[in-house]
Write a structure and sequence with these properties.
The structure holds 2 protein chains of 2 kinds. By secondary structure, chain A is α/β, with parallel strands linked by helices. Chain A has 14 helices and 7 strands. The longest helix of chain A has about 30 residues, at about 180-210. The chains are: A alpha/beta, B alpha/beta. Chains A and B meet through helix 2, helix 4, strand 6, helix 5 and helix 6 of A and helix 1, helix 3, strand 4, helix 4 and strand 5 of B.
Chain lengths: ~375, ~325
């Protein structure tokens, strides 16, 4: 009961603070970005610089094929700049690609070096085999595997390989998986950082504020227990996290998420990060001192976002950071038919981890007060 | 000038006694080393394949030219590996041929590449009968490394601003800020003095980071121009937050808002095509990002650096003029 009153009091106090409104404004900005700026389906446009050195008939055939795929069916003349010289190129815009046809081979090489398109290539006839030959111009930092892929994609028997590749059976462990669109896909990463992780930072600021004002010492002489005080702070943070996260998730995802699972995950993960913030703040006297440590944790916790967006890059050490699983679990909660067992497992992990951190923080604060 | 330096020296002393020793010395070094470790491994990522050990050694050797290959005992182990949350495909033997085992959440494009590699192997396509020739320009630093270094440098600038805000608020709490009025130093002098510590961190952090990540041969003068100019905006923001807020929490919350334009500017610069770049023209981070990027790719011309830094300075002046009354009010 006492805990409940402390919690209500904290909540009331924080809702009067300037900070509370910053959180709300920040959430609204993220929401506006999600709804109006981040496109629903975004595929990055990749630039390709090509130069054709082919017999007239082959070249015309090639260009006609490209024109058919062009979004507006028109070739655009564009001016590219190289060492203060203007080079006119033909631009074909297809789905996800901007292909620039550059007449002169030397210009192609110069422009590829300067502008760094994804691919710069010269397509010509091979006098020995009579087939088509591709000369790729690349920057050099591409890995050997990538270079080998470029080579193998252009093979004498290319048509046969493509036909065979289409015939290969692909078995999927999870059937009926629906991909999230770009906008939805950015939600898990955003709510992880705006909600769950910021709790760590904010709770530390909260504690130092109270330390300055002597609130913590005052607590020592009341009938309330220290853990009540700490828990009421944690619960306030958890509440703010739930409000701000739901403000983002509901308008963007509507009825698709499993809200009950999302709620459980939010509560446990916010509990974890604010307990960590509590523990860190127990070791320092003011914000300036603890700032470095909190900052290092925040940077470390942000790293798994790279793996989230580039799933083929998830090294072992990355999978040792708990936040890696948090982002993935948030994703499961908003997916159609998400893996709820995984979400519950992650929630349990954060609950246990948070519990241990909270106990440690409680001990630390008790000791501090005893001195 | 001397008095300004005295304030700076005092800030430095106070901060070093506290956390700053840890932060200043270690963090850029740690992140520098981390970037050196992470960048090549991200760059090397094509596809990840899982195979059964010793089932087909020749195939395993073939595939290693194109993908990261890991080996497992039997089909069950393969299935367990594919089911994990990262992106790994398996080639599972099925009579004379193979099928692909996927988790089901991979993109179509990735699955196509995996199927193509398998078909290329089965059809006996080799690198020697390729119709493509590769010419390299000899560039060795990957774009991902530049991106990470660039973002870190901008982060340090924000951190500088945050530190100024926290410093000022602590002065306020200790009531030392009022005492300044009784000393011979002017208000402007005080502002400069307080800002120096915030300028010191990004400068040190950037130089340290650039040296560790191997960018020691860039045009340092150009880089310093951009770094100094980019600091102005965060310092200004940090100072305003420090003056107008009474608790560390409020300031921390509002500095948090600086992260948004930073992340947005980088995302637009990297992901959107040229015709959408104007969306973030208002953001000083966008111009800083572009400037640093040009310098890191050794392509920056002085003309561009002056234009970019000029725009950042102009935006800073506009913000300063708009917020001037609040600064005066906060200081009095």
């Amino acid at each position: 009961m006492k805990l409940w009153y402390s919690y209500l009091k904290e909540l009331k106090l924080s809702s009067k603070g300037f900070y509370f409104y910053i959180e709300i404004i920040m959430t609204l900005i993220i929401l506006v970005l999600l709804l109006f700026v981040i496109p629903e389906n975004y595929s990055p446009t990749e630039e390709e610089y090509l130069s054709l050195d082919l017999p007239k008939a082959v070249e015309e055939y090639y260009l006609d094929e490209m024109l058919e795929e062009d979004l507006d069916g028109k070739v655009e003349k564009v001016e590219l700049e190289l060492d203060d010289e203007v080079i006119v190129a033909d631009l074909y815009e297809t789905e996800g690609q901007e292909i620039y046809i550059i007449k002169d081979k030397e210009d192609l090489i110069g422009l590829t070096k300067a502008d760094r398109p994804r691919i710069g290539a010269l397509i010509s006839m091979d006098s020995e085999t009579g087939g088509i030959k591709y000369d790729y111009y690349i920057q050099g930092y591409e890995s050997d595997r990538m270079k080998n892929l470029y080579r193998i994609i252009n093979n004498e028997n290319i048509e046969g390989i493509i036909a065979d590749a289409e015939g290969i059976e692909v078995k999927e462990l999870q059937v009926g998986y629906e991909q999230l669109n770009t906008r939805q896909n950015s939600v898990p990463a955003l709510i992880t950082f705006n909600g769950s992780l910021m709790g760590m930072f904010i709770i530390a600021a909260y504690i130092f504020l109270d330390k300055q004002e002597g609130v913590i010492k005052a607590y020592a002489v009341t009938a309330s227990k220290v853990w009540h005080y700490l828990m009421s702070k944690v619960l306030t943070l958890v509440t703010v996290t739930i409000i701000t996260t739901m403000m983002i998730v509901i308008p963007v995802m509507r009825t698709q998420p499993a809200y009950w699972a999302l709620l459980i995950l939010l509560i446990t993960s916010a509990f974890f990060s604010s307990s960590l913030g509590l523990l860190i703040s127990g070791f320092f006297d003011n914000m300036t001192q603890s700032f470095g440590v909190i900052y290092v944790f925040m940077m470390l916790f942000m790293l798994p976002a790279i793996s989230y967006f580039i799933p083929s890059w998830s090294p072992g050490w990355m999978q040792a950071i708990p936040i890696y699983y948090l982002i993935l679990a948030f994703k499961e909660t908003i997916l159609v038919n998400g893996d709820m067992q995984f979400v519950m497992l992650v929630s349990l992990g954060f609950l246990l981890g948070g519990g241990i951190l909270f106990l440690l923080a409680n001990n630390k604060f008790k000791k501090n007060l005893a001195i | 000038m001397k008095r300004i330096l005295v304030i700076f020296a005092r800030d430095l002393k106070v901060n070093i006694r506290e956390f700053l020793t840890l932060y200043i010395i270690l963090v850029p070094v740690i992140f520098g080393i981390a970037i050196n470790l992470i960048a090549p491994s991200v760059n090397d990522t094509t596809v990840n394949l899982a195979l059964i050990e010793n089932e087909n050694v020749e195939m395993q050797e073939y595939l290693e030219d194109f993908a990261k290959v890991s080996l497992y005992e039997d089909e069950e182990a393969l299935e367990e590996r594919v089911a994990r949350r990262d992106e790994v495909f398996a080639y599972v033997p099925d009579g004379d041929t193979y099928y692909i085992l996927a988790q089901g959440n991979e993109t179509e494009q990735m699955t196509d590449i995996v199927a193509f590699i398998l078909a290329a192997y089965e059809d006996g396509a080799t690198l020697s009968n390729s119709t493509a020739e590769i010419h390299e320009f000899g560039e060795v630093v990957s774009p991902i490394k530049k991106l990470l270094v660039n973002i870190f440098m901008m982060f340090s600038a924000i951190l500088g601003g945050m530190l100024i805000a926290i410093n000022i608020i602590e002065e306020k709490v200790d009531k030392t800020i009022r005492a300044v009025h009784l000393t011979p130093i002017s208000k402007t002098g005080y502002i400069f003095g307080k800002s120096l510590i915030g300028a010191f961190i990004p400068l040190y952090g950037s130089v340290c980071m650039l040296l560790i990540t191997g960018f020691s041969d860039i045009n340092w003068l150009q880089m310093m121009v951009i770094v100094v100019v980019s600091m102005v905006i965060s310092i200004l923001f940090g100072f305003i937050q420090g003056i107008n807020n009474s608790s560390v929490m409020d300031a921390a919350g509002s500095v948090k808002m600086l992260f948004l334009p930073l992340a947005g500017s980088v995302a637009v610069a990297e992901l959107l095509s040229d015709k959408w770049q104007w969306v973030v023209y208002w953001s000083p981070f966008y111009w800083t990002y572009k400037g640093i990027e040009k310098i890191l790719t050794y392509q920056a011309e002085w003309k561009e650096i002056f234009i970019y830094s000029g725009i950042v300075v102009l935006i800073s002046i506009i913000i300063y003029i708009l917020l001037m009354p609040r600064i005066r009010k906060g200081l009095s």
